[in-house]
Amino acid sequence: MAAAKKAVLGPLVGAVDQGTSSTRFLVFNSKTAELLSHHQVEIKQEFPKEGWVEQDPKEILQSVYECIEKTCEKLGELNIDISNIKAIGVSNQRETTVVWDKLTGEPLYNAVAAPVSPGPSDPVAVVPSGSSVPAAGTSSVWLDLRTQSTVETLSKRIPGNNNFVKSKTGLPLSTYFSAVKLRWLLDNVGQVQKAVEEDRALFGTIDAWLIWSLTGGPNGGVHCTDVTNASRTMLFNIHSLEWDNELCKFFEIPMKILPNVRSSSEIYGLMKAGALEGVPISGCLGDQSAALVGQMCFQDGQAKNTYGTGCFLLCNTGRKCVFSEHGLLTTVAYKLGRDKPVYYALEGSVAIAGAVIRWLRDNLGIIKSSEEIEKLAKEVGTSYGCYFVPAFSGLYAPYWEPSARGIICGLTQFTNKCHIAFAALEAVCFQTREILDAMNRDCGIPLSHLQVDGGMTSNKILMQLQADILYIPVVKPSMPETTALGAAMAAGAAEGVGVWSLEPDDLSAVTMERFEPQINAEESGIRYSTWKKAVMKSMGWVTTQSAESGDPSIFCSLPLGFFIVSSMVMLIGARYISGVP
């Protein structure tokens, strides 16, 4: 029986899927795209200060090794020979920034990420009293907001009539991307400054850190990234497909610390340790590009939305860069081979999607597990006029408004936790519609349907709400692991591996679940317009000199200061006139 099972298995391909909240390793049959086994390990996020989000690069690397070992054990229990694994692909959270010592392999700081609000149970790094930075050994995550002042300073140096940063990178100057995180590290972390001066420092996004470490680290590790990850740094020219000297000078980033840029599908190096020692690492894609490939969106105009910690909607624009006039990003979609053409995409991102569910669980405590939200929302079937704008760290596409903060509005005495849960799910859908509307205006061709993937797509209430709010069908593959699948496809198709064909006729047919709109267009439009009113009310809450800066002086508000001083003068005058001693 076991021998027969082995006989029908084709070559296998593994995929590392490293995200903001977990690491996974998955193994696929390259002939059928069937998922055979996987293992997952949760990753801690650290919040040393408000708006700061970090992760430990060593913990991330260790989680990759653990996932690989555990998955191989599970394959052994299924009587599947791991020697059939012919290649490994890497998919990763993008923009998260790591700097490490190439001689020791030790990170010089935590990975710096993008900003979310910590829950009461989230771990916080221990920071020495009075220290402005956390202890070494972390990376800068994509959600991190500490670089806002850096962005404001840099933006003053860009001529109003020549935004060379956006024209070269497709990106707005934002805290979101790696260059400003790296600039912050160079300005604020002595260990990073010293390592750069002594030619010991290497920079990379998570993919580069993992590939360098897995292929030998200090002992010959390959320092490289792929075009999709490079295109999210704000240092990469998406037209020439090279690190850009003018951009590096603008951000004052030494080019010697940058990784070599490769295609998304070629052999970068071999695994140097563990159960899969000797297996080539031959695929690398930022997570959203990986999902685009995994959804097989290879044609112009095809789009997918991934529902994870954030939401990411990508539309393939083919071999031409389309620059958005409506707040979207232009990015590299993929380059599936050294000699293959590069494809581009328009992207809109929602910072807070699955993170809002986590916030309801960890901060408000109205649910005990993420799965409970579907049950709560189903109990009421409506938000009863309650709207939730989860702008915990500002608004991303299409607004790019860092001054926004989260609000819940439209509350009545009747509102309960079920309505808030429903409003949280609606918020994810409304934000997706805002991006889709912008995409339709930029491309000029309205989408006929939306392909979806990611952990939140298992929530049927959410998927139906999305179809209702977009007023187009939502199509979900029965195998939800499209991000890992995309990385596996790129790895298996690499020259020198050749176990996965990307020819249209050879791609496996995927069964889909389809959600059709169940409300009329007028109702959909009314709900959407009310949402936009709520969004407007969320803006302008935070300024650089706001109370969030920690200034306790009442006189930081001129009107308030004037009121207090004039009141004191009037009181003294009244006492003098009345003759009161």
TrEMBL record:
Pfam families: FGGY_C, FGGY_N. Keywords: ATP-binding, Glycerol metabolism, Kinase, Nucleotide-binding, Transferase. The keyword Signal does not apply. Residues 304-494 form the Carbohydrate kinase FGGY C-terminal domain. One of its GO terms (molecular function) is kinase activity. Residues 13-112, 141-294 form the Carbohydrate kinase FGGY N-terminal domain. The keyword Chloroplast does not apply. Pathway: Polyol metabolism; glycerol degradation via glycerol kinase pathway; sn-glycerol 3-phosphate from glycerol: step 1/1. It is an enzyme of class 2 (transferase). Its EC number is 2.7.1.30. PROSITE patterns: FGGY_KINASES_1, FGGY_KINASES_2. Coiled coil: none annotated. Belongs to the FGGY kinase family. This is glycerol kinase.
